[in-house]
Amino acid sequence: MLFYLVLGKSLANNSLHLKPLMSCSIKKDIELSVLSAVVFAICGAFIIFAYSLGATLLYTDLYKYGLWYLLVSFIAVLVLQDTYFYFIHRIFHQPLIFKWMHYGHHRSGEPTPWSSSAFDLPEAIVQGLFFVGVSFIVPLHFITLVAALITMTLWAVFTHLGFQVFPSSSKSYWIGRWLIGSTHHSMHHHKYKVHYGLYFTFWDKLLGTEDPNYENKT
Ligand SMILES: [Zn+2]
Ligand SMILES: [Zn+2]
After folding, report:
1. Interval between CA 76 and ligand 2 midpoint (Å)
2. Domain boundaries of the chain, sorted by first residue
């Protein structure tokens, strides 16, 4: 809302959109996001239920593994989620399953913050299962889990902004080369066959799915 209604005019030159936005596609994105939110809530309820039975590796004592582990496990979750997302995202783009698993996310054509959580039901389930699985595999403090969920949500809104927030010269810095921003993910929505990552450009660089023009793009 801030970027589209308040700052929209002053940032018009930074827009990454190739076509004008349609309010009907934003409405459809909001509908899919509400559906995804229900799926994520069910996953969250399942995690809490499993925790109450002592079945997960979630913990509440800050000092159980030391304070340093809070940061290490936070970064580990982001790296794991990025890896999980990269590979399932490539599978989602296989022609046989794209239409019923991932089309909803690409329906609007142009990414907007409202498409950041717009997933078809099967995709929402596969995405939600990551945090269910990770709570059984990696010991995580509740603070770390909540921090990862907030990071995921804000990062998704940021990568779907449809505005270039940082100048293109930032890609020549280490941090700009390895972190995914709105320019990087807009190219995925326009071209489909490049940029499958979530947080980091690592897998796209390693497996040759980074657009060769990305680092020169202004
Ligand atoms: Zn996609
Ligand atoms: Zn997207």
Report:
1. 22
2. 23-160
Using CB atoms within 10 A of its CB, is residue 166 exposed (0-12), middle (13-18) or buried (19+)? middle
Where in the chain does DSSP place strands (E)? 58-59, 140-141
Distance 116 CA to ligand 2 centre (A): 6
- The answer, as to whether pTM is greater than 0.85, is yes
Ligand 2 centroid vs 189 CA: distance in angstroms? 6
Name the residue with tokens 């940061």. Answer: 71
Residue listed under structure tokens 């399942």: 46
Segment 19-73, tens digit of pLDDT: 666 677 889 999 999 999 999 999 999 999 999 999 999 999 999 999 999 999 9
Which ligand ends up closest to the CA of 118? 2
DSSP annotation string for 96-144:
HHHHHHTHHHHTTSS--GGGTT---HHHHHHHHHHHHHHHHHS-EEHHH
